Structure formats: structure tokens, C-alpha cells
């Protein structure tokens, strides 16, 4: 049933949807001086161009030349370009199994252009290692990288589609890491980002310290959302219900809230399945991400929508957003508002260029306390899909945020994470998270799975660790589950709900990213000190001499580190 506020907004939405003003650009930041080469340039020869073009050569038909800024800084310019890849290059040797982190300061001679780094192998294959929107008049950090699947020479070069612009480069770095070093960096980040040090003191009611007191610290809830997709089988399969509720407290319905599920016939809405899934989730303390209000892919519209005129679509879309957002207002933690609108543009083609931006504005006004996400695939998982590269994702996000009225939009960055069966490019994934994380908006990995293959479980763990260890990532939802519920890409449990190797990985990480129950004895001053994962805790101190105890609740957060938590035992 619609709330009064949503009902009052309905007539306004009909007028608003598809008729907005043009968006203006948002404020952008880049640097007057290039950053120093990271890791001293790593294995790059002459990374700061202090020795003219030594170690570098022109790639393609263009030219390269050294220039010096007014401040005396040397940099290289690729000019007289005729093809996107006309630039400069350097050959390096990569070793099988190592992860290579890349960075460079880039600038273009005019306007704003996407500049990409490409790793070209001897067989002619080129792998995009990362991209960024470079600007005239200031330096932007381009980050990326590759994972070497074999030992080979590789040529590093740069691309920009607009050949009339010059590409300016400085302070190039390519740093190799072993997988052990990469994992060590992840673990260090997890300890810094996901945990906080807590100091407890147990005292008598008189505040006299109690030494040698046994203290039990039990984590009862994690603050980091690590969840799993859910589908309609949850309503009819008790084993699926038990399997899910015993593991996960965050979810996304894989299909059940989508327009083609709730209004298969025009004018006949049916939310029965979605409503019952919401009820099940709420009864089990499971938070829900809404997925999705609209899908910009023409293939995934309700059949009847595909034949509507633009005016008819405008009316139908206004009814849809009002219906679904108002129905679940205040019950969801997020909405994927316009799904996959970097790849597709069904609503833009039919309702105008601002269709996405307007839908976010409307959804926020209908449900003001819910975070509104862009949700896109291939941004972290496949660098060769340039349509949804980090630079293009950010450009679309800027369009939405710059639309009149959207400056204070509660926006979120949704990265689906449908990885293939091959080795994930963790360096590229991290560079994307770095770039999009610099916006300050929360990032969620929203639909993580890994294709079938002999190393599926290993690669799933690598992806999940990379996401969890990154400070900009505020939640992870996997689109995985038991075979009995139809999850056949990344299956966590067989038809009898026995774990697969991928299921073992997920259970291991759930345990690893939880402090569990710890029992510690206080020192001579009644203190204990330890590092705990962010979450809610129950702390019990027992004085066996007086046979008394006390229990307190504690919430451990990154934002509010705890100096000393007092636990008083009456004696």
C-alpha cells in the first residue's frame, strides 16, 4: 500500500520523468605537479624522464619529445598522433605468477580525454591495464596493472581515442609483487581497516582493579556486510532457509523485485513473492539491497514495455518507480536504481539523456534514507570492456550527480564482480577501487561470482579478500548459493547442502573475519588489550573468588575507537 507521501508525489513524477534540464559538469580535481614515481619506478627504466627519453621509444606513427615545465620538471609528450595507440612505450620482462602494480601521472593537451595503459605481449595481444580521465592543465594519476600468467617480455604503451590531443606522461612505475607479498598487504589492510584495538579494565564497584579475572569476549554481530544473493526457492525449501539464515545477514534478491517479475502483464502488479521474501528476511534479521528499480538493457524489460511509445513508457516508468520504491520504503538499505546504465541506454533512448539522473532524483525523494546505487558489470572484473571502465563509470556517475537537485544524492557505487574462470587481475581490480574510492562514495561489490574452472574456489577467495581488504569497500554481496536453489555458476553447496570447495572458502572467510569467542585473563591492573573486528560484542567478566560476574555490551567501530572500556563487578 502506498504511503501518503508517495501518493502525493505520484502526479509530480508523471510530469518530471524524462523532462529534466541538461546536466552540468561536476567539480573535478587534479594536481598542478605530478606525483613522484611510486616505488621509485619499480622495474621501469628512466621513470621520471630525468635522462631525456632513455629507455623509451615512440610507439606507432606518432612522435615523442621531452619538455620541461616552468618549474624545471621534465616529462615526455606523445604528439603528431594518427592512431589511438600512437604514444610512447617501454619493454619490460614479467615473471609468471607475479602481480604488477602500475602507475603514471598523465595529462592531455586539451579538454578531457580517457587515457589507458596497455600491456602488449609478443603474440600481439594487448591487455588494458587501467584508464583514467586526463585533463588539460593538471596531472591525474593513472593506476592499473596485470597478473603475469607466464614469463614473457611485455611492451607498455598508452592509448587515447582522440588522436588530435597530445598525451603527456611523467613518473611511470611498474612494481612487481609475489602473491605472498600481495596477501601480506591485504592482511595488513584488514587489520587497519576492519579491526580496532580495544582496552578493557575489570574493576570492583569501588573501581579497584581486579587482576587475574577471566573475561569472555563474544562477537554476536559483524558490522561489515558480507552477504549472499537469495531467490524464490527460499520460500519453499526449509533446508535452504536454514543454510542461508545460519550464514548471512545481508542479501539481494536476484530477480524477484525486478519489473519483469512484479508486472508481467501491464497494470497487473504482483509482489507476493517479493513481499514474502522480505518477510522471511526481516524475521531472520537479514538486511536487503533493493534490486532493481529499472534495468537499462532493452533485453530485460517486461515484454509489454518494449512496444510502448515514449509517452506511454514515461507514464509506465513513473508508475513503476512510485510503486516499487514506495512499497519497500524504509525497509531496504539500498536500491540499484538504473541497473547497468553504463553499458545500456534503453531509457535514455526513449525518455531523453537525463533519464538515469531523473530516476535517481525521484527514487531518493520517495525513499530519502536509502542509498541509491549505480550497479555495473565488468568494471572490476574485465579490463577489456572499455564501455564500463573505471573512467567511463565515473563519467556516468558525474552526470547523475551533476543533475540539478542531485548534489546531495545519497549515492553508492555498485560493482557486480562477475569474474570469469581465469586468474583475476587483482592489480587492475585494486586500481579501480582506488580510483572510484577517491570519490568518497561507498563501494559495494554487489553480485560476486567466479566462472567454473579447476581454480574456482581459489579465485573466489582472492577476489573476496581483495574486496574486503580495500578501505573503500563497504559491503560485499555474492550471487552464489546452493545447487538446490539453482545457483550453478558458483555453487556453495550440493543438492544435499554439503559444501563444495567454494562453499568451504566462504565459510572459512566468515569465520576468519569474525573475532569469535575469546577468553583472556586480566593483568595486575585489571587490564586486557586486544584487536577486534568491528561489530557488536557481549563481554562477561567472572570473579571466581567471590563467585560474581558482570556482562556488558560493546560496539566496536572504526569511527569511534575505544580507549578504555570499564567492566565493574559488584562484590
TrEMBL record:
What the entry lists under Pfam families is as follows:
CBM_4_9, Glyco_hydro_10
Keyword Ribonucleoprotein carried by entry: no
Per the UniProt record, the lineage of the source organism begins with: Eukaryota, Viridiplantae, Streptophyta, Embryophyta, Tracheophyta
Natural source organism? Prunus dulcis (Almond)
Q: What keywords would UniProt list here?
A: Carbohydrate metabolism, Glycosidase, Hydrolase, Polysaccharide degradation, Repeat, Signal, Xylan degradation
Sorted alphabetically, which PANTHER family does this protein's record hold?
ENDO-1,4-BETA-XYLANASE 5-RELATED, GLYCOSYL HYDROLASE
Protein name as annotated: PREDICTED: endo-1 4-beta-xylanase
TM regions (residue ranges): none
- The signal peptide annotation in the UniProt record is 1-23
For this protein, what is any one GO molecular function term? endo-1,4-beta-xylanase activity
Domain GH10 positions: 211-509
Protein's UniProt keywords contain Signal: yes
What family, per the record?
Answer: Belongs to the glycosyl hydrolase 10 (cellulase F) family.
| GO terms under biological process | xylan catabolic process
